[in-house]
Amino acid sequence: MLSALTLLLIFQLLGEVIARGLALPVPGPVLGMLFLFAALLIKGGPDKELQGTSQTLLQHLSLLFVPAGTGIMVHLHRVADEWLPLLLSLLISTLATLVVTALVMKLCQRAPSTGGVSS
What we know:
The chain is mainly alpha-helical and 119 residues long.
């Protein structure tokens, strides 16, 4: 488990160093995840230890939202002051997500099947 966590943190660090070093507008952990994905594609997939560690992290993913929830509670006065822009951004982003998802789904339904199992 320790080597798998180390591997995940190394990729996150690599992404962070590249994002900051090149002043990219992409968060370092996102770049690190892309690098990890590329490495796993080249390697042919994760090993058992990385799979087990990833599953354990995913089972406890909700704990990672505690700091964000705490931050909202600490700055609740700002949320109260700026509720309208927050509400509008949430509504617009949700609507945009629904529209894009629907368009992608229609596009995928129109695309000819390339084989595999059909339903």
